[in-house]
Each structure stands twice: as C-alpha cells, then as structure tokens.
Design brief:
Undecaprenyl pyrophosphate synthetase, 8 helices, 6 strands, binds farnesyl diphosphate
Length: 252
C-alpha cells in the first residue's frame, strides 16, 4: 500500500508513533477550550475579548504541559461548525490566531514545540493559512511537545476526508481495518488522546476527536477556559491518575 506523504499538510507523520514514557502522565492531552464567551460576558466585555483572554492563557498551559511531561497537546481552536458564529466574532478570532502565531512562534520554536495543524485549510483566511504553514515548517524538527492546533476541524469531516483519501488511492476493502483508518486521519502517527479536558461545564464532545477519543478519559470542569491555569491542569491529571482504564476489559 502506498501512502502519499502529505495529504493533510503534515509530511512524514504517517509512520511515526510516539510511545508513553511514564504511565502516570497522560502522554496525549486534548482540550476543548470552552467558556471564553461566558468569561467575557461576566465582565461586560465583547466575546472577542474572551477569545483574546483564552489565547493569552496558552503560554502557561504549554509551559505546564512541558513541566508535567505531556508529549502531545491537541487544542480545539475552531470547529467546522464555528463558521455559523457572527461574522465579527469569526473575523476577530482569525485575527487573534494570526497575531498569536506571529508573536509566539520563535519562542515556541526555541522551546522545542512542534506545531501541527489538524483540520481543513479551505475557508481559513489566506494570511492565516500562510502563517500556519510556515509555523509548521519552522518547527517540524522539534520534539519536546507536539502541539496540534485543531482549526476548521470536525471529527466527522476528518472521517469523510479519510474515506475520500482511501477511495482515491483505490484501497481494497479487505485492506481496511481500524489501524488503516487511524493512519488516514489528520492525527496519523500519533497515539490517541489519553485525556480529553473540557472547560466550562458542558458534557459533550462537540465533534472533537470522535474516532481517536473512543477510549479517552474525559474530565469536565466548570472553570472557564481563560481561568484554567496550571493548578487546574494538575487537578485534571490527578483525576486521570485515579481512573481505571479498562479499554473494554473488566474492572480490577
Ligand atoms: C469556545 O468558547 C472557544 C472557542 C470557539 C475558541 C477557542 C480558541 C482560542 C482560545 C484560541 C486558541 C489559539 C491557538 C493558537 C490554539 P465559546 O466562545 O464557545 O464560549 P461560550 O460557550 O462561553 O460562549
């Protein structure tokens, strides 16, 4: 079976799988960063101010992830459904994303963070697309922390894209199993998330990593994303450590 190197703008990832070094630390943490709007409303600020505060929160969370020994962090920045939001909010968020890449890229690179994009590039403004592509290229050699930015991402769209790619390549049905599908997802080569955190109290997956999250542990906190700090991350990891992960097996 031949697999093209760069279907999803992330060359050379299909064969590489990272393995956990410490079973007490989740290797791959994914976060649904919810509550920016409510954080802003509580302060009588526009929603975009909430997204700015949420973005400002990334630094300390990235640092905390490195300190905790987490190897992969996947952040849900913008879903395929978020285009339904008011135009000024969408445009504001795109501008914030562009500015944060410009401002933080060199330091992230120096800190050993490898930036990847998961999602569809179509509809993403051209300026932001260019920034993402150059950030991915500049940091591709880093291996301290993989930061997957889920932007214009949807779990169902991801599965549609995988099926399309498999059909385009003429894969025979007999050669398609669960591993094959995993390899055709945007997260190809990465282990599934061990822990999915959702801030601001909602108990749903919102189309985030729906294939990869099949056996992830979920942690939901009422804390709004801009207020989710190092100590909140620590609480989530402590909870994770108490879980009995059975992957369909029987209880200890
Ligand atoms: C959900 O809160 C948050 C978003 C849709 C955007 C999250 C994006 C960021 C914090 C920017 C991240 C940047 C990078 C580079 C990863 P909401 O608006 O749905 O809040 P609400 O439910 O309280 O209204």
């Amino acid at each position: 079976m031949t697999i093209p190197a760069a279907i999803y703008d992330q060359p050379m990832t299909r064969a590489r799988t990272i393995t956990a070094t410490d079973t007490r630390t989740p290797n791959h943490v994914a976060i649904i960063m919810d509550g920016n709007g409510r954080w802003a409303r509580k302060r009588n600020l526009p929603r975009v101010a909430g997204h700015q505060a949420g973005t400002n929160n990334l630094r300390r969370i990235l640092r905390a992830c490195v300190d905790q020994g987490i190897k992969i962090l996947t952040l849900y920045a913008f879903s395929t459904e978020n285009w339904r939001r008011p135009e000024d909010e969408v445009n504001g968020l795109m501008r914030i994303l562009e500015a944060v890449i410009e401002r933080e890229l060199d330091e992230l690179d120096r800190s050993g963070v490898q930036i990847r994009h998961i999602g569809r590039m179509e509809r993403v403004p051209a300026g932001l697309q260019a920034k993402i592509k150059s950030a991915v290229a500049q940091t591709s050699h880093n291996d301290r922390l993989i930061l997957n930015v889920a932007l214009n991402y949807g779990g169902r769209a991801e599965i549609v894209d995988a099926v399309r790619a498999m059909l385009t390549e003429g894969l025979h049905p007999d050669f398609i199993d669960e591993d094959t599908i995993s390899r055709y997802l945007y997260t190809c080569g990465l282990p599934d998330p061990d822990l999915i955190i959702r801030t601001s109290g909602e108990y749903r997956s919102s189309n985030f990593l729906i294939w990869q999250g099949a056996y992830s542990e979920f942690y939901v906190t009422d804390v709004y994303w801009p207020d989710f700090d190092e100590s909140e991350l620590k609480k989530a990891i402590e909870q994770f450590n108490k879980r009995d992960r059975r992957f369909g097996g029987i209880a200890k």
